Amino acid sequence: MSLPGPDPAHTDINPGDFIIGARDTWIVDWSWPTIGAAFIDPACLVVQLVAAGHSSGDAEAWAAWSKGWAQANSVAIDAFARATHRMHQKRADRSLGEAQLCAIAEAARTWFEYRKTLREAKAAAS
Prior knowledge:
Blueprint: E1 7-9, E2 18-20, E3 25-27, E4 34-36, H1 40-51, H2 56-63, H3 67-70, H4 74-94, H5 99-125
Antiparallel strand pairs: 1-4, 2-3
């Protein structure tokens, strides 16, 4: 059943947060839970997929399975991509070069730049 309005969001999703069983999958480690737009968790996974070596386009194609992503306003996703990039970059800057945080910051930057390129191409076509 789907409830109207904002959805619960994990907001810190990463590969270690999944327990995959024979018949079910669980998402664990809800350290940053919040209520928000339904596209947030798929967007967080887009960054993880880019960090794992997938292109931003392929990662977004995967996210398209999500009803929340499919129904999201592209301007909202763009804004989230920008904020995600800035957050991860600040965390990486404070970490003094910790490899994992720098890799996630780079993935977030790559995804943000991809979204920016899409937005600019769409504007040029208009």
